[in-house]
Amino acid sequence: METYDRYLKLMEVAVDVAWRLRKAYRRAGLTTLNSGLWHPWRRKFATERKELPLKDVALAGGWRDRNTFLVCYQQPDPETLTRVVLHAPKLRDNGLEATEVTPVVTPRRNTKNAGSKPASTGTTV
Asked: 3-class secondary structure for the chain?
């Protein structure tokens, strides 16, 4: 019965806090967001802190499960995607300095059937 009482108390607190947040929205002349009352703010919190250590952000935001934090709350954003694509650090031969390394792509040779005709894929062009 103690668990049920704790659950009721938690629900009572949650309803009270939600009521207060809605009241704050009204006072500020704002409408609630379509994606929820709390979740948009939690997503904003998580997304703005992408560059900080995951453990610290999850703890500060009250997430116990880091997977939920990553999947549901930390969202991709255009600025970060641009940095990922255009401003990636360069791979160096010793990891820190010296010359830039260009990956070498070597075609794979099929040594099993060397000299035989390529197998037909069964499709026509």
From this structure: CHHHHHHHHHHHHHHHHHHHHHHHHHHHCCCCECCECCHHHHHHHHHHCCCCCHHHHHHHHCCCCHHHHHHHHCCCCHHHHHHHHHCCCCCECCCCCCCECCCCCCCCCCCCCCCCCCCCCCCCC
Cβ(35)–Cβ(42) below 8 Å: no
pLDDT tens for residues 25-83? Answer: 899 998 888 878 888 889 999 999 998 999 999 999 999 898 999 998 988 989 889 98
